[in-house]
């Protein structure tokens, strides 16, 4: 059906054959009308019986069109089916009266007239539904229709107003009135509709145009003499019926035409132009013919003026609403409903241009951890649902003055006016805990999805001039976010009161190796263990007063230590094992150092399993013979093991104290436990 709809009308053989058949029928009907001028029986048969054939065909084709279409178009054709039923009923009743009334002169009005009037009403409803317009478009159509109806009144209807009213005169007067109304509505809809004008509706308009002419002629002739079956008006009405049959057939054969839209174009000037021309034309005709402007012209002018004013009000409202919709669409992320990156940059620039009461401005970048695995495991629709839920959670936790935007794929950014670095860090920490504490339930996914995020915080403060320095604000927040990712994710870095002592700066390690350490932690169910151990090692080394180079080396070794136990067995050798078995940690350390391109890490990694009392492996080193970085690493790994095994930090503290002087260096242990008592060590879980 799709391919058929694309075939031009002239290429559809059924339509072409039908058009030829219609011409043949019209020629046959005209010939029989001519022959019936002197043959009353033939004229009656032609004008009353054969006349019904196109009406019945039109009814059948209307049913075909209604079944072939859907939605609003189907509803319109159902109304037209009802209209054609009323038409067939009226013509059948009229034929009955012609054959049963003495002299073949039915009274007026009859039951047939009820069918004709109902047909007009249903036709108007069907046409309006078929071209379905919104309020503004419908008002435009009515303006054009009113203008056309005003001309029709003056030219067609006004001369037919009877001097005295009786039922027959009233019914005779109604037909041209309804015809003018339908034709005017059709023209108005076709000229102002927002949709592509279907070929079926064009044929309908032409058909009813013919009907207007025939009804007007009928009204004029009925004033002079009565209607007879041999009148040539029947040929004109047959032409109208045949055009309507073709319209129904086109609608049935080409249902896709009803839904196509025109390219955007401006026709708002048309109703005003038509109204101006009509009022001017009517006023000019009145002045020429009678020397004064008639009440009809004044009434039409007043109605059109009121309609134009109403239309302008509606048009202004529509433009305002459209502008707001376009603005909202331009600054809003379609998936999550929060603002987009473009709007964030605009607001950031606005805050930078003018200081707000010399207040600081902070930015928080949020990046969901391991979001790609959600898409890979559950599919992008689930990923989209997670992003939407995260956006809602973040938005609920922010103040009314704060701005939340989607910055990229799984990244969000919070713009915090009048917020210093400490307050921004605390807000980011609350957001992190909220996301971590409540897994995201997604329809269709059996278990709620655990979710964490990394945060980078940056703050700009006013300078002496009062302006905010935000040139590097986003870059700073982005660097802090990258550090949070590199140090194990699920953390807040930047501007915080403890950030400089809680974690090490970015380590000189390959990102792929850091990623592998995090993946191993995730697979083992340890949480961000490697990153936490690295942070503890950095903080402990700082408390011991070690130089920065030693602190960095210790933190780097702690960051990748967990990978070594995957490469080779790092546990203590079995009793009686051959010497090569003791070389496992050495081999793992050298391999890890080579992968990291950091030979300085090998001694620390190899000695991480030594004990303070000399009972460790692989070399049985004791006391100060063990590198200080390895002693710190051993203690931090022991704390991670204890925290994983027992829920209470106090009980984990007791576990470490049991190894004082045997497994752990007492001096290092005392410093470490002091940090733990201060709450300066992040939880690895």
Brief account:
Pfam families: GGDEF, HD_5. The protein has 685 residues and is mostly helical.
Structure description:
Strands 1-3-4-2-5-6 form a six-stranded mixed sheet, sandwiched between helices. The protein has helices at residues 2-5, 13-35, 40-50, 52-68, 71-100, 111-130, 135-157, 167-192, 199-224, 233-253, 269-289, 295-331, 341-353, 371-378, 380-397, 421-437, 473-486, 499-502, 511-524, 529-543, 548-567, 579-582, 584-596, 602-606, 628-645, 649-658, 666-677; strands at 339-340, 361-368, 403-408, 411-417, 453-460, 492-493. It is mainly alpha-helical. Helices cover 65% and strands 5% of the residues. α25 (628-645) crosses α26 (649-658). The protein has 27 helices and six strands. It starts with a helix and ends in an 8-residue tail after the last helix. Residues 1-5, 258-267, 497-504 and 577-582 have low confidence and may be disordered.
The low-confidence parts are 1-5, 258-267, 497-504, 577-582
| Rg (CA only) | 44 Å
Proportion in helices? 55-70%
Overall mean pLDDT: 76
Q: How many H/I helices?
A: 27
Structural class of the helices, strands and pairings? mainly alpha
**Terminal residue distance:** 62 Å
Biggest pleated sheet: 6 strands, mixed
Shape: elongated
Strand neighbour order, sheet with most strands: 1-3-4-2-5-6
Transmembrane segments: 14-37, 49-67, 79-97, 117-135, 142-161, 173-192, 199-220, 264-284, 296-314
Organism: Catellatospora coxensis
Pfam family, one: GGDEF
GO molecular function: diguanylate cyclase activity
């Amino acid at each position: 059906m799709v391919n058929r709809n694309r075939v031009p009308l002239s290429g559809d053989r059924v339509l072409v054959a039908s058009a030829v058949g219609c011409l043949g029928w019209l020629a046959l009907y005209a010939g029989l009308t001519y022959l019936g001028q002197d043959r009353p029986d033939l004229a009656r048969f032609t004008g009353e019986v054969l006349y019904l054939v196109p009406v019945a065909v039109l009814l059948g084709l209307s049913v075909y069109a209604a079944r072939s279409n859907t939605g609003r178009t189907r509803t319109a054709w159902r109304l037209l089916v009802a209209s054609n039923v009323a038409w067939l009923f009226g013509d059948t009743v009229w034929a009955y009266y012609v054959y049963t009334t003495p002299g073949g002169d039915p009274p007026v009005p009859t039951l047939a007239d009820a069918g004709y009037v109902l047909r007009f009403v249903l036709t108007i409803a069907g046409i309006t539904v078929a071209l379905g317009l919104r309020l503004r478009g419908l008002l435009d159509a009515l303006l054009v229709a009113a203008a056309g109806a005003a001309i029709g009144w003056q030219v067609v209807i006004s001369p037919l107003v009877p001097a005295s009213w009786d039922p027959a005169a009233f019914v005779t007067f109604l037909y041209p009135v309804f015809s003018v109304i339908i034709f005017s509505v059709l023209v108005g809809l076709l000229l102002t509709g927002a949709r592509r004008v279907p070929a079926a509706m064009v044929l309908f308009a032409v058909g009813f145009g013919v009907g207007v002419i025939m009804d007007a002629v009928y009204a004029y002739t009925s004033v002079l003499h009565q209607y007879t079956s041999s009148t040539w008006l029947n040929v004109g009405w047959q032409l109208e019926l045949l055009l309507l049959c073709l319209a129904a057939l086109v609608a049935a054969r080409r249902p896709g035409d009803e839904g196509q839209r025109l390219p955007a174009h401006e026709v708002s000037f048309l109703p005003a132009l038509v109204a101006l021309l009509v009022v001017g034309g009517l006023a000019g005709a009145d002045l020429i013919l009678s020397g004064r402007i008639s009440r009809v012209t004044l009434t039409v002018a007043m109605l059109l003026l009121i309609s134009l004013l109403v239309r302008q009000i509606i048009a202004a409202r529509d433009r305002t609403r459209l502008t707001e919709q376009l603005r909202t669409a331009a600054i809003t992320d379609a998936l999550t409903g929060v603002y987009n990156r473009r709007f964030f940059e605009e607001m950031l620039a606005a805050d930078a241009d003018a200081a707000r009461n010399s207040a600081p401005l902070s930015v928080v970048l949020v990046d969901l951890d391991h979001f790609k695995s959600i898409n890979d495991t559950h599919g992008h629709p689930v990923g989209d649902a997670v992003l939407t839920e995260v956006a809602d959670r973040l938005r609920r936790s922010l103040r009314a003055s704060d701005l939340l935007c989607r910055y990229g794929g799984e990244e969000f950014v919070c713009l915090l006016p009048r917020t210093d670095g400490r307050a921004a860090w605390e807000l980011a920490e609350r957001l992190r805990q909220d996301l971590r504490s409540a897994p995201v339930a997604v329809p269709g996914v059996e278990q709620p999805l655990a979710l964490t995020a990394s945060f980078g915080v940056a703050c700009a403060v006013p300078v002496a001039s009062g302006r905010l320095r935000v040139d590097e604000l986003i870059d700073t927040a982005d660097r802090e976010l990258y550090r949070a990712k590199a140090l194990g994710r699920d953390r807040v870095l930047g501007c915080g009161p403890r950030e400089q002592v809680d974690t090490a700066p970015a380590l000189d390690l390959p990102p792929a190796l850091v990623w592998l350490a995090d993946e191993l932690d995730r697979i083992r169910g340890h949480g961000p263990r490697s990153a936490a151990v690295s942070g503890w090692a950095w903080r402990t080394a700082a408390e011991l007063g070690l130089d920065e180079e030693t602190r960095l080396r210790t933190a780097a070794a702690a960051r990748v230590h967990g990978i070594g136990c995957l490469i080779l067995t790092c546990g203590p050798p079995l009793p009686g094992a051959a010497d090569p078995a003791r070389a496992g940690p050495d081999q793992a350390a050298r391999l890890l150092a080579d992968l990291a391109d950091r030979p300085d890490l090998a001694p620390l990694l190899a000695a991480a399993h030594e004990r303070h009392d000399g009972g460790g492996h692989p070399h049985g080193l004791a006391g100060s013979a063990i590198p200080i970085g390895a002693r710190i690493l051993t203690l931090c790994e022991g704390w991670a093991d204890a925290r994983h095994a027992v829920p209470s930090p106090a009980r984990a503290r007791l576990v470490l104290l049991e190894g004082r002087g045997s497994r752990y260096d007492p001096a290092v242990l005392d410093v470490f436990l002091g940090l733990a008592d201060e709450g300066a060590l992040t939880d690895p879980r």
